[in-house]
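Appendix B. Chain record.
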Amino acid sequence: MNDMYTNAINTQKATTEWMDVISENMTNVYTPGYRENKITFKTFLGGAVIDNNVKNQGQGKSMPGTSNENLFFEGKGFFMVRTPEGNVAYTRLGDFTFDKEGVYKSATGATVQGYILNDKGEIMSGTKSISADLYEETALKGGAMSIPTTNIKLWIDPNNGKFLGKYDEYEIKNDGTIYGKADGGNRMVPLYKIATANFHNPNGLYMVKDGLFVETPDSGKPVIGRGEIRSGLIEQSNTDFKANIADYQQATIQMELVKAMIDTNKKLLQSAIEMATQ
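Structure tokens predicted for this chain:
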């Protein structure tokens, strides 16, 4: 066990880190898609020591997006995207829009991933179709995500101004299916299913950029995400503002106590030095 001065220094360092994390949470309370950081402490034998800093994976509230292209994932999991470098990544922030070439992308330029569907709404893997039942069955076993995904593209034909040359408009349903609509909405054809993924240990994901994660050995392989997709909305930060205020107040008190302990130890040390030199 360390002496009181060492314990106080350790606690001061840990408290400073804690306050930094709380400050970051409070700064991003209105940042769409932000994941709240949660600090846990390992032991108090050697002073307060940070055990882990994990992301709160709880659901954030929805807020209106800028268009119907934006998506809100209500449930457990992430949207699957491919970065400009070609790497697969995962995000909760559905700030997606179609670019001028009709490619569905995030605000950072990552392409939203999906599955091509046949006219029955079945996922196509090469030339073979996969029924919804088989998709669900393999998903529960962790195998569905081995189905290749593709970039979602709804280009507009310059000759007639229609999506894919056939459809007057599109609609994104709650199951993540993108439909092409024609004949005043009387004809709807399934085109893509937006790919979502979840992990047995989402806290094991590694954040490469704000709100963008990649899998690791700790997270495990992706399985299917569970929830509903809502068009025209995006997810707010899941930071609990009141809880962070309470934590900050507690951290402030802890810092004041630590400072008092350090000051007391300095005075005791000074007194001991003075006595030894007399």
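Further analysis of this model is presented in Appendix C.
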